[in-house]
Structure formats: C-alpha cells, structure tokens
Amino acid sequence: MSIPKETLLHAYRTMKTIREFEERVNAEIMNGQIPGFTHLYTGQEANAVGVCAHLDESDTIISTHRGHGHCIAKGAEVSGMMKELFGSSEGLCKGKGGSMHVADIDKGILGANGIVAGGPPISVGSALAAKIRKNGKVAVSFSGDGSVNQGTCFEAMNMAVVLQAPAIFVIENNYYSEHTSINYAVGCDDLKARTEAFGFPVFVADGADFFAVYEAAGKAIAHARAGNGPAGVFAEQGRYHGHFVGDPQAYRAEGELEDLRENHCPLKIFRAKMAESGELSDAELDAIDAEVMAEIEQSVTDAKAAARPTADQVTEDVYIQYTATA
Amino acid sequence: MPEKTMRDAINEALHQAMEQDESVFVIGEDVAGCSGSAGDVGAVGGVFGVTEGIYHRWPDRCIDTPISESAIVGAAAGAALVGMRPVAEIMFADFIGVCMDQIVNQMAKFRYMFGGKSRCPAVIRFSSGGGFSAAGQHSQAMYQVMTSFPGLKVVVPSNAYDAKGLMLTAIQDDDPVLFFEPKILYQETADVPDEMYTIPFGEANFVREGDDVTVVAFGQMVPKAAAVIDALAEEGISCDLIDPRTTSPLDENAILESVEATGRLVIVDEAPPRCGLTADIAGLAADRAFSSLKAPIKQVCAPHSPTPFSPELEAAYLPDADKITAAIKATLA
C-alpha cells in the first residue's frame, strides 16, 4: 500500500506527540502537578493514529477513559488538553472535564468517557445521524478489551447492524481490563469471532504497527462509508503504563514491559519501516522529534501559567438556558 | 376549539415538529412496529399509540429498535450531539433502570464536562405512573428521581393541552429533556388547538385559584386534586392549585408567592415519599416562606413501598381524594 509522504509525516508526528504528551503527563502527576485520575495511552499510539488517519473533522470519534491518544489523533489541540489536565479555566473543557472527559465537538471528538463502554451507544447515534442525512460520514468508537464485556457494547453493536449505521467499532486489546487479564475476563477464546458474530466484518491488525492498523482501519471505514453498515477493527497492543498512573501492575509477567518497549514500540517500528523503504529519512524524523519535544514543553509551561477557574464558574454550562422562557 | 386526548395531542405535536424540522426523528421499540415481519410495518405506532402514523409519512425518520434501552438513549444522545433533534421513546419510565448510565452519566453531563461547547437537544419520552395494575416494574413515576440530576430538564404534563405545548417546547429546547407522560391520562381529553404552540419550561399553571390553602400537585395528581378542591369549594374552602408542569426547572416563585398568601401548603405526588418532590417543595417552603406558614406542611404521596399489582392494593397505595381532602383540612384545623 502506498501512503502519501504527507500522511506518513503527520502519522509519525502524531504518534510522537501522543508519546511525549503521555510521558510528560506521567511525570507531572508524579510530582503532584496534575490532580485526579489519569489513564495513559503510551504504547498504543499506532491504534489511534492508524484509525484517525482515515477521518476528517466531520467524522466523529468517541473515546474511553484512556482517551488522550484518540483525542490528539483526531486533532485536539495539545496545549488546550494540557491546560485541561492541569485544571485551568483555559483548558479545552474550561477545567470542567479533566483527563477522562477531554472533548472537542467541532473536531468531531465526542469525548473521552469515564464509563467503560459508555461510548459505543452514543457513537451509533452519530452514525445514525450520518445515515439519515446521507452525508457519507462515519462514527468511530474506541473500546478496550474490558469494554467489550459490557452490555452497552453488545447493544450498540447489534443496533448498528439492525439500523445499518456507518459505525466503526475499534477494539483495542491491551490484554488487561484494569488489573484483570483478558484470558480471564473474556469468556471465549476468539474475541474477533465473537464480535463478527454480531454481523459485521472485523479487520485484525498488529496494534504496534501503524501500517497494519492503517490498512485494517481503511478497509473497515471504506466498508461503512459505502453504506454497508458497521465494521470493526481489532488491534492488539499492550500499554506501557498501569491501568491508572500509580498502578503497581501486579499482573505483569516478568520481562513483559521490557519486551513491549523493546519489541513492540510503534515509534521504533515506524522508524524501522521508513529506514527500510527510504520514504522518510532519519533526519526528517529527528526534526519532528525535536519539534514535538518543544511543543510539549511549551504546553506544560503554558498550562502552569494559565488562568485558574473561579468559584462563580461552578454552575456555568450545566444548561444552555434554565430559566423560564417565553 | 377541538377536543383531543393527551395521546393525540402529543402525536400531533410530533407530527408538526417533524413536518417543520427535518432534523427531528423518533426512535424506540415499536415506534413504527412490525419491522422485519410479514405484517404491516408501521401498524403499531408505539404501545400506547403516541407515534401512530409517523412511519407512514416519514419512514426514514421513524426508527424501530431492538429492545436495547441503553442503545436507544445513547443513539439519541449521539445523534443530538451532531445536530439532530431525536425524540426517543422508552416504553415505561421504570426502564430507566436499564439505561440510567446513558441518561445521567452521558447526556446529562456532556455540556458541563465539555466546558459548555456541546449541545444535546434530545427528548426522551416515557410512559409513567400507576393506575393500570401494572405492578412493580411498569408503574413508577420516576420523574422525581430524575429531577435530582443537574443537566436534565424534566417535564410532567397533566392534561392534553399542556402536553402538546410542552412537547413542542421540548423538541425545540437545546438541552436534554425527559418527558414523562402519565399513562393513566392518555385518553383524557382537553381543548387543544390545531396549530403549533409552546409552553415555557419553569412556568407553573394555576389550575385553581383560592385564598385558604396552596396545593401543589404533579401529573396525574393534578386532576385528582382539582376534583377535591372543587368539592371543598362547596364547603367554603378555597385553594390555589399549582401544577408546576416541569419539575426541572421548577417555578419556585409561583409556589412561594402562593404560600406567602395562603400560609398553608399541601403537596401531592404519586411517588413514594423519601427524597421526592413533596419533600423537596416542603423544604423549599420551610426554607424560604417559614414565617408565612400558619400550619404544618402536609405531604400526600404513596407509601415507601413498590407499586402493588392487585387493584385493591393499588387503590390503597396511590393518593386519592380522601387523602388529599384530609391533608387540606388538616392544614385548616
């Protein structure tokens, strides 16, 4: 598959941005700068970027509690996200949402979501809107291997088939739902087959490999855009961090994390493929690295200097209008 | 003015809204009916007939679903986030139990969590309340529970005229609206204009006006309270009867002004008493009109019990004319 150079550059930059955003957020949590509960996407960058490379701003995504990567991949502004995580009123959500509720409706980001499998039903609604309007748009929901055991996920998958809605279900298997292995929590041996049994095709990819995800997601999204109803993407790739920042990760096998970082790093795999094909040079990629590092550094500097919310803002934005209207 | 049932009044509002705005669609279980069967698709129009005829005019915007309440509410919420105006039907208010997350954690909170940058103009309709011997899982009011969640607007019509105007307001509103239709009132009639009209949220209706006692009632308790008040008028007792029509927003001023004038307050609701609307309004009056009160506030509601099946038991369970009468007289004793 031939991918335009511009797409390759953007994909690498976005994966690197997610990586450095997450690593910096981890550090800022550890030194007490970011409050609340945070779940990091480090290691899974190729999933979000490989899928979102096929979407434009009027296609929608809905994410999970581990949502920073999806939001960045769909175009959320990094500086606004960092400010949001710091709790600033200048944040993308004015400090009202934080890590688990980053959203940017204008960019088709219907939000990270703190409820596991809260997103798939909502995504079916966005897909249904596209079907009614006949505008060729698709709606992507990201789910983990924990989410697929929720009833809402089953309901959404079945309803998308029944309504023939252009919904894409991206299942990211990172092997653990919180602290519990997929070997325990998913009762069948073949999650892809279980998903396909709902009545739509599921395309499998190595979740560490941008090119594999890009190809699988391309097929799924083309299927849905063509009016053939929903489709799925099933990508396996472990996360580098715990379920939440601070998780002691008692479930890991010896050497597991080292193996992930060494042999299943989306950035390393991408660079190796570029070196092999010669499509992008090390110098080009190094330049992106430097720019991304500077952007993340600046975003933290800006977030620390950004305005703090004030008590009068507590009750703003609950409703568009709540008083009696004539 | 033509007389119409509440069922027909809501049906007319849905037709008119769909005629006027292509972004309006209805979705739910059997809102068309018979989909995929050998029979006549569209022949059902909802189990209470409220969406009757819509499928035949707009088949693309009248969407039968599987029995999947979470997915129904989620689909409405997601479609609304991208600019549609869905009207979803959840057959019985009790089924909030299976889609609570999509209502209270998702649609209610989007706008706030997203920093005011989203709008979710979804309407979720429910048949609500007791009186049908439908027992514990098909009889609850539920609006009192949902009133406690910020981000939702909650509507409870008590007659056909209000139902039409409130439904048209709900569909035009840019916030999520839960619309509870007291199912015992579906066949009750009122004068309902053919043309479109709206009734503002947060503006109570004074169903009766009087000097001695303020009575606040909700949904199917409004006509019951009105009948009691008409009977008491013959004994020389005159009452304000306030129907808030929306429990969120609540027209607090109408209630407080009336209580300040009468000095006596009776609140009537069909739901059980704990953390309900009667306690909510009693608290409001105690807090902000205490010095006007001439007698203890009286709350008339169901007991702290699930709704029973047997007609004798349900009749004993729901507030009736005797209980409302006794409460009003107790404030005058």
Description of the structure:
The complex is a heterodimer of chains A (326) and B (333). Chain A is of the alpha/beta class and 326 residues long. Chain A has 12 helices and 7 strands. In chain A, the strands form 2 sheets. In chain A, strands 1-2-3-7-6 form a 5-stranded parallel beta sheet, with helices on both faces. In chain A, strands 4-5 form a two-stranded antiparallel sheet. Chain A has one domain: Thiamin diphosphate (ThDP)-binding fold, Pyr/PP domains (Rossmann fold), CATH 3.40.50. By secondary structure, chain B is an alpha/beta fold. Chain B has helices spanning 6-20, 54-57, 69-81, 96-107, 110-113, 143-146, 160-172, 221-233, 252-262, 277-288, 311-317, 321-332; strands at residues 3-5, 24-28, 62-64, 85-92, 123-128, 153-155, 177-182, 189-191, 205-208, 213-217, 239-243, 246-248, 265-268, 298-300. A 7-stranded mixed beta sheet of chain B has the order 3-2-4-5-7-6-12, with helices on both faces. In chain B, strands 9-11-10-13-14 form a 5-stranded mixed beta sheet, sandwiched between helices. Chain B is globular and about 65 Å long. At the A-B interface, helix 5 and helix 6 of A face helix 3, helix 4 and helix 5 of B.
